[in-house]
Here is the input.
Amino acid sequence: MLTEFLKTTIPCEVLESSEYEGIDDTLLISIPNSGEKDGLVLLQKGKLYCFNLPGCSGLWLEGNRLYVSVILPACMTLLIYEPGKKVQTIVNTKLGDIHDVRVIDNQLYVVSTGTNEVAIVDMQGRVCQSWPLAGYGDSSHINCLDVWDGRLVATAFGKFTTYRGYKGKTQGSGILYDVKTQETLFDGYSAPHTPRRDEMGAVYVCDSRGEGVSYHYKDERKMISFPGSFPRGMEITKDKIYVGLSSLRHRADLKDGEAVIPSAQLAVVDRKSFQTLKRISLPRAEIYDVFVVNN
Here is the structure.
């Protein structure tokens, strides 16, 4: 099993608490921007396994092979874990600040946030094809991928053209767009991440600066709110929505007296009522991705 392979391959700290109990799914969570506590967290059977790795962002499970993207400004770094095999590292110095990874039709896609593009790379790290947005460097802050009926979509902070042109301008400028046609499908977000769509066609997006998850279905649009947090990373199951909540990084932007969560949390939300059933505190600052690994 992949989870047992990770436990024997990567040094980890095991934490136990009654707070971790009552979750039926096995969850793998990526942790960036937490200093020496960067890495992966596995929540399984009431225990928290904390694996120490460089700042991890996107996760993707293809069969029993786990792909992990690492946030490094200078280059693309991907880690591949597969039981019975050595850990594989894929590097490309022309891409950087990788925020997501996905295998689609046996092709390996990455979001190169640092170069403002989504690219297909081979197992040697060479770029086979790419879809950049106009601009210089991290101008749009493209971050997370999903596939909807064969259409590759991504979230971005907006269509800006200068390096980090979104700084101070994220409020309402975020988009969800078609990567290959560059058509904007939804807009009005504030620093969006993690686009997801369920079996009914409802769209969920972590509206991170809006401190909630934006829900669209037909003519209905609502916000599942998590005040004082930066929602990012989400997994939708048959009856639950798991949402990663990061502690707000830019506290200087907060209004006097505004409360913030002290550390990262995992919210467990009922899919029918959108009520939060449980929150689990993690001894980390941020969460990037949340993935169910019930193998």
Q: What stands out?
A: The radius of gyration is 18 Å.
